[in-house]
Design a protein that fits this description.
The protein is an alpha+beta fold. The protein has helices spanning 112-123, 137-154, 172-181, 190-197, 201-212, 216-233, 238-244, 250-261, 265-269; strands at residues 7-9, 14-16, 19-28, 43-50, 53-57, 60-64, 68-72, 78-82, 89-97, 107-109. The protein has 2 domains: 7-154, Jelly Rolls (Sandwich), CATH 2.60.120; 172-269, Homeodomain-like (Arc Repressor Mutant, subunit A), CATH 1.10.10. Helices cover 38% and strands 21% of the residues.
Amino acid sequence: MKNYRPLLIQDIHLEMPGLKVHRLRLNRHLPEARWTEHSHTHDQLIIYLMGRGQQRVDGALYTARPGTVIHVLPEKLHAFEQQAGRHALCLVVDLEMKTSRGVAHVCDQLTADQLSETKSRLSTLFRHPQIERKEMSLRVAAVMLDILDIALKAIGWLAPVNRFSAAKQYSISKRVERLLETKDGAEVDLKQIAEQSGYQQDHLNRLLRAECGLTLGQMRARMRLKRAVTMLGEKRPVQEIGEAIGILDANYFARWFKQQTGVSPTSWRR
């Protein structure tokens, strides 16, 4: 984000049925950031804008990257650890979320367009050097409503409304695809993906079959193949590619790839 500066806006007092926003801050995690577990008496919504790291929430570990949205429930221990590269920049919103409008889950990923829109709306706050002043509270509230509309729909707390029909949730398969896109290698665990989507794995498989004709495992295979093909085009070693998508045995990866495509990885590269 251009023109970044630390930002803390207290006492927002933005309230609507089932939701009350207390404050927001824009944080850049420092290099020395390590596990320092803590909790709050309120909900917390964390939207990662830049950088990478790992976010632990109530014992579960989530990969944090640009567009990751984390919902931390009250009294749940959580912590962040920085990874190598650009320092993580995130928007943290302290709020109360009393009533779920959909199937809320802890972690989800914004699309590229949603992330771009979030950054664009947030950047408007930096045009005003005294944005923290009480007189600017209406402008802050307008920006926060736009950002929360995106983030709360992403985690399932709000159900998006289709103008041609009644309230309609985002496609479950699209939500699962976004989750799969945030995972690397061994992180692509089916049970964990199901938990983060808010469903039991068997139930999620039934919903996915009804919606797109694929099971969770088949969606993972499709995502793995897409990544493998991309990395083959980058001339990366076959064993490294297998490890990157979560198949550690090089021979098994070669057999799996041929089963998916009809040719071996080396033949595909040629």
